[in-house]
UniProtKB/TrEMBL annotation:
Name this polypeptide is given: 2-succinyl-5-enolpyruvyl-6-hydroxy-3-cyclohexene-1-carboxylate synthase
Oligomer and partners: Homodimer.
Cofactor binding, per record: Binds 1 thiamine pyrophosphate per subunit.
Task performed by this protein: Catalyzes the thiamine diphosphate-dependent decarboxylation of 2-oxoglutarate and the subsequent addition of the resulting succinic semialdehyde-thiamine pyrophosphate anion to isochorismate to yield 2-succinyl-5-enolpyruvyl-6-hydroxy-3-cyclohexene-1-carboxylate (SEPHCHC).
Residue ranges constituting the Thiamine pyrophosphate enzyme TPP-binding domain according to the UniProt record: 459-587
Keyword match Magnesium: yes
Family that this chain belongs to: Belongs to the TPP enzyme family. MenD subfamily.
Transmembrane spans: none
Claim: Cytoplasm is one of the keywords in the record: no
Species of provenance: Rhodocyclus tenuis
GO biological process: menaquinone biosynthetic process
Highest taxon listed in the record's lineage: Bacteria
Reactions accelerated catalytically: isochorismate + 2-oxoglutarate + H(+) = 5-enolpyruvoyl-6-hydroxy-2-succinyl-cyclohex-3-ene-1-carboxylate + CO2
Amino acid sequence: MSLSATPATDHGLVNLHFAQTLVDALAAAGVRDAVISPGSRSTPLALAFLRQPAINCTVAIDERCAAFFALGRAKASGRPVALLCTSGSAPANWYPAVIEAAQGGTPLLLLSADRPAELHGWGANQTIDQLRLFGSHVRASHALEAPQAGFASGWLQRLAARAVAESLAPQPGPVHLNLPFREPLLPAADPREWPQAAELPLPSPAAAFSEAFSADTYAPGWTCLPDPAAIAATAASLSGRRGVIVCGGGAFPPAFAEALLALAAALDCPLFAEPLSGLRFAALERSQLCVRQESFLRDSSFVASARPDWVMRCGDFPVTRQLQQWLSGCAAAEQIVIAPPGRWNDPQHVATRVLHGDALHIIAALTQAVNAPAAAAWRQSFVRAEAAAEALAAKLAAPDSAAALTDEADRLPGSDADFWEGVLIPALLARLPAGFRVFCGASMAIRDLDSFSGGGSKPLAFFANRGASGIDGNMSTAAGIAAAGPTLALVGDLTCTHDIGGLALARGRPLLVVVINNGGGGIFEYLPAAALPEFARGWLTPADADFAHMAATWGIGYQRAATRSAFAAALELGLAAIERGDPCLIEAVIDREHSVARHRAWWEQHQ
């Protein structure tokens, strides 16, 4: 059936024609996932999405959880995910996830239904000003008019393709379409006359806009390179001199890791791999890699003797304070930053050169232009430091290692003096099957991952919400990632409690949730607030949540562990549930005071 406009006598039929044309065009442009929150004003679009066979629809009643779920789905797939809700305060619940998507460079399509113009400003129910609702946090914003008979279908198809393109390039992020509908929302006509969803392939004018994108990888079909003279000048400043490459997190293409290692080999320099870089756990040649820098950079004598002439950064700014402080101490060195167009990843204001463009092609161009490595002794000093830190980590993994770090005897009843994050994290990662996705929560979880994860050739994919680094929506994001396959969510007790509604989205998905329950905001133990008399009330804020009941609420399997052996047993049961496609929550009970003591003892060994 033609998708041209229908007579104005049936506004509901016009609405559905309009909605189906838009959704079919989104499918034609490559959208494969939509997350829908129930509502009335969004009915035409919800029906169009549910009837489009090329788009997988997830229904989530809480708009905030829905938005973070869409964020996780987009992180895992690299494709823009459509997000739909009704009018009023509903789209305002998307705001935290929109900010995270904007800061983290994750493509989302925000479709907010709305009341028509004649109802705004007249006290109509569920009507707010939704135009420019997300301000500067969207890559583009499109305010549409309510559908009219005879609407231009070609324009609507091109708008859909344009919105998809804007969400991906030049910098991925969210795009907002505000879509008003007049009542009646659905047709009065015989349902046999209602428009039907088009089947793929969907030839349309949108193809002219979408053909520049790959259907498999969904990466832009064009690249943005800096001026060749800048590449030549940068390569000349790197060649033959002592340097360090630092790789943070980012949505890098598959070939990026090998390209970056090839550059490090050409320069014969160490490559500091952050946990979200994709370099720590991968089948790669590892002679240039350092994954224990958070440890050996605490050694002041080593830092003083190994001062680089240059530092090159790519990806996000480093996670840990230790690496941040080291970078600040390298202010006298030349510092080169590789960043996407329009991004300035230099919060310390020390960059001497910023190369904007496609990171993979910049790295490849630099590798070709480099003409001399550093002296062999330069990298070897880092190899020795890495090996020494690795040896200490191996001791940490040995039985009763924690007891050797501290002689304190008091601990939580039933807990294990040898059970803390420093032994939990490497044991957990060692047991995960290859190909697992790992979502790491904010605060201490991501920092402990950096300190204790180590590395290896087993491929694991790491994710986190580091754009704005909030604890909100972490469980929903992890559930969205789990829609792509088996996923671990490593989070703290407050992070899990903050997004308890997100656990509902874990049902029927292979999500293993490991909650490190250390009785509140453990990260604040290491910050100035810990010395305040109001610390427990204002910062630690223990939730005292019953995680067994929390899991049972959503029909999720539950295990509790307060010792190494109990955790190992719980992990086996959790992984068995994942193999069946079921979620499981493991509560790892950590004595916070002992954990703090062991962290500090661990750090002191490296000073």
